[in-house]
Amino acid sequence: MNKTRNGFMKSLRYVCLMGVIALGFMTIVATGGGGNGDGDGDGDNNGASPNIVLLGSLNVTTDYFGDIKIFGELKNTGNKAAIFIEIKFTFYDSSSNVIGTDYTYVDGSCMKISTINTTSDTALVPNEFGAFELWTNIDANLVSSYTYRISFDAYDLEQPTANLVVDSINIQTDYFDDLELLGTATNLGTTGLIFGKISFAIKNAAGLIIDTDFSYIEGENVYLKSIDSYTDTALNVGSTGTFDVSTSIGSTEYSTYYYKTSWSDANISNGIAEHISDILSNAVIERNYDHLNNQDRREARKERDMRIERIKNKVKQLMKSNEIKDATSE
Q: Are 275 and 266 a contacting pair, CB within 8 Å?
């Protein structure tokens, strides 16, 4: 692939189409465990490319309203990192008529697009895997089969300047005997951060994803000049915050879990945070997501997906603008 004189790799949009037949809904039974799901290795820009595949089996179930809901995992088996990793499903009835489509983005690592200084938690580096949770408005009784398509972008990526690291996790049960994960996390990077977030993927004994939940860090309260607002999700360099993730999974239903951390880089001084990005990716803070009821959680997940879609499109516009500027400067 060619690079412009500004040094950034031109974006390629990768798409892979695969078919799956829905044979039935899976039951959820499990017991205790823990860990993290980070892969290792960086993509090589010299002829390298990502390859995003479905990891293991999908967990097809229903939500409270009887609409189809799908959990799963994606893995990068290529040799370059990918970002804005999306999986889109098309649903069919027994007569093979399309009855609906829906999409979601992977809960991945926090990576920065090098040339426009913008982070997203939809990235997977080589050998890394991440979970997804798709909520739909499609009656599960109407679905006979489905297909899915995985797509992503292959911009040049780098580590953000902040670095949110989990220090400890305490496993307990809440009032309803559901799994609750509490802990602390510290910013070990070289700049401050805002919108610090911990996302968990919960598995059962069969290795299926049965829940994804997240919580924002309870950190420092800072003023955001860019949006004239405040957030208590900030951590300056070396600062530590707490998190509390309440899931909808019974304490005897889960077997293992892993987590991802994400944030937006920021310069923090005297209680004021200046966002270090060309795009403010988390202007809407979804605090207390993990404490919402099922319908609200569905809406919150959809809001995240739509926000990522807007960010992705804005990134494309900025990259295209940079290409045009570079071409006219020759």
A: yes
Q: What is the pLDDT of residue 38?
A: 39
Return mean pLDDT, the chain: 81
Q: What is the pTM of this model?
A: 0.82
Query: Helix, strand, coil proportions of the chain in percent (round to 5)?
Result: 10, 50, 40
Q: Which residues contact 8 (CB under 8 A, 6 or more apart)?
A: 114, 115, 155, 156, 319, 322
Domain count, the chain: 2
Structural domain includes residue 7: no
Q: Supply the range of the domain harboring residue 284.
A: 164-292
Residue 1 lies in a domain: no
3-state DSSP assignment of residue 61: strand
pLDDT, residue 9, reads 32
How far is CA 310 from its chain centroid?
15
> What CATH number should be reported for the domain holding residue 106?
2.60.40.10
| Whether residue 56 sits in one domain with residue 135 | yes
pLDDT digits (tens, 9 = 90+) for 61-77: 999 899 999 999 999 99
Rounded to the nearest 10°, the torsion over CA 103, 146, 253, 205 is -110
Whole-number Å distance between alpha carbons of 73 and 107: 9
Distance, in Å, from the CA atom of 158 to the CA atom of 81, rounded to the nearest integer, reads 9
